[in-house]
Amino acid sequence: MRGGPSIRFGDSVNTDVIIPGRYLVSIDPAELAEHAFEPLGPSVQAAVRSSKVIVAGKNFGCGSAREQAASCLVGAGIEVVLARSFARVFYRNAINTGLPAIALGDAVEAIEEGAEVWVDLEAGEVRAGDASVPFPPFPASLRRILDAGGLIPYLARHVVGGAAS
Hints:
Blueprint: E1 2-8, H1 15-18, H2 29-33, H3 42-49, E2 53-56, H4 68-75, E3 80-83, H5 88-96, E4 101-103, E5 116-120, E6 125-128, E7 131-134, H6 140-148, H7 151-158, E8 159-160, E9 163-164
Parallel strand pairs: 1-2, 2-3, 3-4
Antiparallel strand pairs: 1-5, 5-6, 6-7, 8-9
Helix pairs in contact: 6-7
C-alpha cells in the first residue's frame, strides 16, 4: 500500500515544469527534488514535498522525454502519481524509476484536493476518503520492478549471469 497526503494539478503538466531543463546535468533524485516544480514557486514546491501522492488531469508529464521528471518526484518523496491520463514517455519513465503512474480517466475527479490517498497496486484500488476507485491491477512483473525501486535496481538484483529470475 502506498500513499498519504495528496496535491492536485491540472491538465498538461509539462516536464519543463516538473524539472526545468537547466537542472538536467544531475541524475541524483534528491538533488533534482530541490528543483521540482520550481517554476510554480516556493509554496508549490513545499506542498509537493509534504505530499506523497500527485493527482492530476490529462496528459501529465507531456513535453520532453526526460527521465529526471519522474526521478525528481521520487526524490521529493512522491510515492504514486494518479492522473486522468499520462504522456506516454513519462508513464514508462515513471515505472522505470520505481514510481507508480496510474491512469484513472474521469474517476480521478473523485479525489479531492489535499485528500489522504491510499493505493493498492495488487488489488487495483485507490481509496480517498469515502471514495474507492478501481483500476486494472498492475501485473506482477511491473509490481516487481516498482518494489525494487525501478528497472535498474530490479535488473541489478535479479539478473545474474544472464538469467532473469
